Each structure stands twice: as C-alpha cells, then as structure tokens.
Amino acid sequence: MARKIVVNLEKCMACKACEFACAVEHSLSKNPDIIVLRGEKPGHRINVEAYGRNAIPVNCNHCEEAACLMACPTGAIYRNSDKGPVLFNSERCIGCRMCVQACPFGVITISPDGKGVLKCDLCMERLAEGKDPACVTACPTGALRYIDEADESKEKRQKVAQKMLSAQQAAKKEEEAVRND
Amino acid sequence: MAHDLPYADKASQEMVKRAATEHIDTVWDRYDAQQPQCGFGTLGLCCKNCSMGPCRIDPFGDGPQVGVCGANADTIAARNIARMVAGGAAAHSDHGRDIAHTLLMAASNPNSDYQVKDEEKLKDIAEIYEIKTQGREIKEIALDVARATLKEFGQQEGTIQMLKYAPPARQKLWEEQGFTPRAIDREIVEIMHRTHIGVDTDYKNIMRQCVRASLSDGWGGSMIATELSDVLFSTPAPIRAISNLGVINKDYVNLIVHGHEPTLSDIVAAVSMKEELIEKAREKGAKGINIGGICCTANEILMRHGIAVAGSVMQQELAVLTGAVEVMLVDVQCLYPGLDTVSRCFHTRLITTSPKAKMPGVEHIEFHEDRAVEIATRIIETAIDNFPNRNSENVYIPNHTEPLVAGFSAESVFRFLGGKYRATYRPLNNAVIEGRIRGAAGVVGCSNPNTEYEMSHIAMVKELIKNDVIVVTTGCNAITCGKHGLLQPETAFKYAGKGLQEVCRAVGIPPVLHLGSCVDNSRILKVLSNIVAEGGLGNDISDLPAAGAAPEWMSEKAVSIGMYFVSSGVYTMIGRPLPIMGSKNLYNYLTDEIEKEVGGKWAFEEDPVEAARKMIMHIDKKRKALKLKPMIYEQEFVPVA
User: Fold this and answer.
1) Predicted ipTM?
2) Which of B290, B349, B343, B353 is nearest to B317 (CA)?
3) Are B61 and A23 a contacting pair at CB < 8 A?
C-alpha cells in the first residue's frame, strides 16, 4: 500500500529541521560542516511556508496525475512505476522550467546552483535502506510522518468517530438533565 | 534503552546495563531522545539575541542569508561563540573570586576554619603583586594578596598581574596587539555588550574580544583559583590513590562530592575523619565514612589528600545507580539536573550547597565559608542518618578500581625533574632538545555523549605517548586516563615510546601527568612559561613543540580554555568542531588566520588518532623551526613529507 508524507499542522514549530535535513541528504558529502566549507548549495525540497503566524510545511505530493511530469518535454521528470514517486533526472533536464510552472503546489523550485530544479524524491536511497525520508526523521515534534495512506484515513475516521460519539453522549446527558429538572 | 559503551571503563559498562534493567534514564538516554539535534544550532547559525528574531541563516540554499537586523552568518556564528567564551570565563572566574573571598576571610577572621597552608606560594604570589613580604605576618600578606586579587575582577585601571608569569615576548605580543586584559569581569561584560543587538558586527573584532576575555580567564580568574587554592589547601604533590565506581564501599556510609570548588569538599574530607562522626556511623551499622569524588571536585581533593575518585562527569548518575550512596553533595558546574530523577529512585539524598546552584525540590544546605566545619558536620550527619534507609538488596557496586598517581603541579614537576635540592626544568628541556621527548601535549576536557565515551581520550593519549610526546592532563580527561590505568609509572613501559620511557624511568614519573581540575589548566600555562624560561626552546610559548587538545569537549568552559590556549600561542585540537561551521570565514579565521596574530590556532578532528597525528605534525614543525636534533629513537608515526 502507498505511503506518503503526512503533515500535522498543529505540531509544526517552524524549526526548519526538515529543510535542513533535506539539504544535507541531497548533498555530496552528507556532512553539514563540509557542505558549508565547500560552498555547496544542495537546497531543500520541502518548504516551511509562513502564513500569517502559522508555519505550514509544504511538500511534493507525488500526484497521480502529476502535472510536472506531463509538462516535461524530455522525460527528465519521470516515474519508475505507476504508483512510484515522481522523480527527476538532471541529465535529461534542459532547464525549460515547465515543471515549475505546472506544479500546482509550487514545490518544484529552481536549484540554487542554477542546474535544473529541486524536486522531492522521497529519499529513495533511504527508503531502500528501510529508513524514513530525511525530513520526517528530522522532525522533532512529529509534525511530519511517513505513513500508509489507508492508515491515515483510518486514523482520521477514528477521530471523527470519537468526536461523533462524545457529541452524541453529551447531547444525551443534556437531554437527561433537562428531563430530571 | 540498553547502551553499549564499548570503549568505556568496565564499571561504566556494567552500570549502564543496570540503568537499563532498572528502567532509569541517564545522560546517554537523554542524548538519544534529543536526536536529531538542530542543525542551525550545531552550525552556529541561529541568533536569539533580540526579539526581532529568532533568526536563522540558510546555509545550503538561497534562503535568508541575513537575520532581521542584517547580521550575516559570520556575525551570528561569532556572536554565539563569543557568548560561550563569556559563559566559560565567567564560570572559572567566579570560582576564582570565591576562593579569593575565602582567603580574605581566612586572613581576617581569627576563628576561620581555613588557614594559609602554603606560605611559600603565598609569598610568590605576593611578589607578583608587588606586595611586601619581608618582616610581615603571614596573615597580613594573605590579606593584601586576597584584596589585590579581588580588585582585579572589577578594577577600572591597570591590567591583570598574573600575566607576568608569561614569557616576556608573549606579554609584549599581547600588549602590542591590544589583547592584554584589563579586568576579569570587564572582559566578560564587554562580550555581552558587543554581542547585543546592533553593536559589534565584525566577526574578527568579536573574536579579538574573545581572545582578551579568555586571557582574563586563563591568566586571571582560573589562575587566581588555582594559585589561591594552593595557598589555602596546599600545593599538590604526587600522591597515590584509586579511581572508578568501585571506590564506593558497601560497608561504609558513602558520601559523593561532585562539582568544582574545593572550599566545601576539602572541609568535608577533613571532618569525615573525626572519630566522633566515625563512631556515629558505626552506631548505625556502617564500618565508617567513605568519601568519593566526581568531576573536578574529585580532582581537587584527590591531588591534595589522595581521596578516591568515583568517576568523571558522565558517571555522576552511575554513582547514584549503585544504590549505595547516602549523600550526593554538589556545589557548582557540570551538575546534571537529571541527577535528581536518578536519586529519587534510591535512598540517595541529593544536596545542593551553593546559592548559585539550586535544583527545584532538592534539599539545599547552604554552604557558608565562615561556618564551614559546622555545615560539613551537618552534611556528614545527614549521610550517616540516611545509611539505615539503604535497601541493601538493591545495591550493585561494580568491582572495578584502578590505581593512579595524581597531584603534579608547575612546582612539583619542577622538583621531580631536578631533584629536591636543585629544582629545575633543565632535564625536561634537555630531553626535548636531545630528541628523547618529541614534545608535550595537554589533553584535557570534558566527556560528551556525542562521541563514544572515553574512546577519543584514550586513543589520543596513547597515540601521543607512543610517539614520545609527554602528556599532561586535567579535568575529566585526567579521570578517564586514571580509570584506564594511564596515570601509573608502569604505563610508560606498556605504551610509551622508547625515549619517553627513558625519561620516565630516570625521573620516576608516569608518561601522563595529572595536573588537577579544569580550572587548573592555568597550571599548564605556567608549566609552558617555565619551559620557555628555562631556555633552549625559543622565546615564546608559540615556539615550543607543544599542543593542546580536548577531544570530547562539552562545556562553555572548554571553549574559553581552548581560546586562552590559542591566545597564549598553543595549537589547540578539539574533536567535534566549535559551533561555527556555518561561517566559512570564521572557520578560516579561527583555524588559520588567527595564528598570525597570536601564534596559536584551533583545529578540529573527530578521529582521535588522526587528531593526535596532526598535533605531532605541529610539534615536528616547531622542532624543525627550533633546529632541534632528530629524535634518538625511531618514531612510530612519521608524517609523509
């Protein structure tokens, strides 16, 4: 079953640990000290957006009907399998930026080093090692989780069920209280 | 969670397993729980010095490169590290101030529990301060010395007098570069001012103030702490003792002293010998009273009284976990708040004593120097009364101790080398000049759960002595070396190179010399100055074939210590880098350009053997510059040219 990065907005503290970890994961050395000394700019693929005083992590959803993929004329944006993540191959990229325009979430951005674009790859290497994506592991509050979509839906339904039940019980109690008065 | 500490002493290995089975969290568990730690903080790129922030610099992309005020990565990283220097210098210097106050009291109050124990040293210090000694009572001299040292904390004119211990060339360099500290408190205050919003933006200028503040620590506050402690509690002389958690004795009332200052622990140690208290302990079913030390308090009473060392900073909770500690007595610095949680799992009474260091809900018996014996007696009685509360079924004391020799000082090294009647550094200088000893290294500092416990300390020290580099050690590195058997004269024949072995055999010293607590790093400054003064190895500390290191550093004090060694001309190696790596410019300055200004520089290397080799390469560079003879014996590590 498909897993995806799920965001719990209430838990985001705007620490940007996800952005930081994403950049480190996509660097050559994967060592923050060395990245700075070498002047490397790996950039981040997840973005903590400020909206008023709120912090909203916005990330690639790996859409089924991926607009970026359809817009790409060279196949630089591609999928390995029907349900697999939407990936980016810089060697095939001609820098037309059609994907940047096409993405409705604005999560494909121009790479700070000017070569191609930054696009979430769900940390394929880490997934192969049985790890969660770097941004998820880095999140100190659990605002980001890499979970099964079905599980997420189930979780939501459970919450709704709980709320409905307590609402019903509260109404009942009130009714009884009125009757007893 | 069970932790493996594959490189740690056996006692710690056993105790972390016990912590896991008892489901008690220790520093290692809390470290794991903090992972991953914030990258911005690690790189020094988070500024929260004003409420327009907190601000962060994006180190890896095209995000913000300046904070709200406009400060860039260089400024922010420099401000942050400067405040660490201020914190460290403040801690050492406030310790020094307390010792000076105790001396003032000892000299002015005829009923004081403290006295001048080393009159010679007092007179030496008086000379530095240009205080007359001839024909004067010791108490009068002590009063003047106490007042003169206390004045240096807040004086508005003049400079710090103990700088005069440094080689003349070094004093001149500081003067010319504007690095001479004016007053101890002032330099710390000035760091806080400069790093306030909208003051000093030039990272190099901020670092220059760090140089000055750190010097006011090393040659000021710390040196006052060391020198006056010697006056009050006697100058250490080599002494045998034992170390590690096995010193906790199941048949005795165990009182562990932990922290940094000797004022309380020294009195506790003396009072615990009182027959009436021992008798009281016997009445409660114990065989007597047993004192053990943790961290630098341990070092203070170890080197003066030979009192057993229970462990280093990271063993504070493990000591309580034995279930056999009646009182854990703490003063200041490096006290984990987590101690309280662990103590509550046992009968152990955690007692804070300093008005500066309280813990919520923890018993506080405030220590006052003018009632020292009375308060120490009360604390020991508390421990005795708590003995019957011990659950003897839940006691586990690891059966591991290691003998060691401690108590070297700038003065006793002197006596050892030249003999009692002709004290001199000559044999040491000659051994370096002739190529028996390649150089000297100070390996000091804390322990940190961010690296394999004790691995770096031991691997680095072994690599150095193997290559004929004599090592001096302080603080928790000294305790680690002790627990691993490196502070014994026999160590030389197991691990040292041939040349160093010969010197150790001739003089009868271990190849690793315990020089005291972390505040006693000032002793290393004096040793280095004495070596220069002896002649034949250049005119300045920066000419010496010497290096410093803190492979597992953790505290702000360590940053201040590192900075004053660099500022005194020493190549200073640490394990994990300073939190400045988000600024390439600051990194280049501290690890390279600063050498042109002060003769020393920082170096970062996490692999301890590689780090030791870089230190040796620096030592070789200095040997070459001094045109010293090649080493007599073949060296294990020869750098590829």
Assistant:
1) 0.73
2) B343
3) yes
